[in-house]
Amino acid sequence: MPSAAAPSAEILRKIGETVPTPYYLYDEKQMLERVRGLQAAFGWNTGYREYFAVKATPNPVILALLKRAGCGVDCSSLAELVMAERVGFTGDEIMFSSNETPAEEYEYARGLNAVINLDDITHIDYLARHGGIPERICLRLNPGGDFIIGNAVMGRPGDAKFGMTRDQLFEAVSRLKGLGVKSFGLHAFLASNMTDVDYYPTMARLLFETAVELRRAFGVSFFMMNLSGGIGIPYTPEQRPVDISDVGERVRRNFSDAFAPVGMGEGIAVATELGRYVTGPVGWLVTKAIHEKNTYRRYIGVDACAANLMRPAMYGAYHEITVAGKENAPKTEVYDIVGSLCENNDKFAWDRPMPKIETGDTLIIHDAGAHGFSMGYNYNGRLRSAEVLLRADGSFKVIRRAETLDDYFATLDFRQINEV
């Protein structure tokens, strides 16, 4: 069951008068409600901040709305840093969590005085040469082994390329203290799209207890515990939304249990990077049925394709799909919903029960507001779509125009064909 109310057929009709499909649509009101829910859940921590992951929905209008709501940004590339800067983020409003980082990106992040989150122990010397070691720095932990919640193995962090081992973390703190670092942050990302309410509290306890051990070993202080992302959204009908208030309370208890007995906690901010949680449910890919094909399977061909939303093709990911104006119609048909790419995995749904779909119907692909547009590509020369913001007052505005053929060809020089 989608965890956000989809736009009505009437709203889509109005948008369709000026914006051709396919396009992405984001709901401002519901997005900000989700941010406020996060802030309430973690309000017990006076320094709490959501660092919205720019990679989830990299649009400056979205980032500006979130900035006004009190969010920071999590950046992982030069382009994301530049976008954040142009929106007005600076200093500790920016987390720079990158890996295999080019020199110019560290230098740019240091120029913004962003919070550097080091992914690897070898990056200490590299950062010293390219930007310099700051007085406050965050370190990314990968504990390895199995990540266990209750009796279930939820992942194997050691298989991920991110973060440093526990031994490397301790060595890094010792070395950085000698290089003048006055205060540290810890960061970890152990699993993706988790809807288990125990995920964040379990990971938080790992970070909090590690901070206590580092304090005992080196006498260092901490300014941040960054719980990163990983809290998921209910893509499939049987999933239910995470109770973020319950998550926040469980993290609070673990914070108190770890830090109060040793006199820590004062001045330590809790941070999150919940891009998917914030924008995922409040964004939709809107497309139109343009063909019906009946061979060995029944197909509905739409004007969007995997180049617009690659998650189903790449991961086999489920996205709920509804037909505007037929939300309550009986699901009497079974279709594959497909795009136009010359790839057989270019499908948004397989054997999906749906109401009868007619050519010209508008289809809404749900829960596409994070890692949707941003993961798009240009295979087969397909162009990226527009992005539209549904304002709180019911109006709408185009916040990114659709790509054109001129855009697609802009990096080519056809005059060179005469030189071959």
Offer a quick outline of the entry:
This protein has 420 residues and is an alpha/beta fold. The protein has helices spanning 9-16, 28-41, 60-68, 78-87, 103-111, 123-129, 166-178, 199-218, 244-259, 275-279, 311-315, 405-409, and strands spanning 23-27, 49-53, 72-75, 94-97, 115-118, 136-140, 147-149, 152-155, 183-187, 221-226, 269-272, 283-294, 298-302, 321-323, 333-338, 347-354, 362-365, 386-390, 396-400.
Protein topology:
Blueprint: H1 9-16, E1 23-27, H2 28-41, E2 49-53, H3 60-68, E3 72-75, H4 78-87, E4 94-97, H5 103-111, E5 115-118, H6 123-129, E6 136-140, E7 147-149, E8 152-155, H7 166-178, E9 183-187, H8 199-218, E10 221-226, H9 244-259, E11 269-272, H10 275-279, E12 283-294, E13 298-302, H11 311-315, E14 321-323, E15 333-338, E16 347-354, E17 362-365, E18 386-390, E19 396-400, H12 405-409
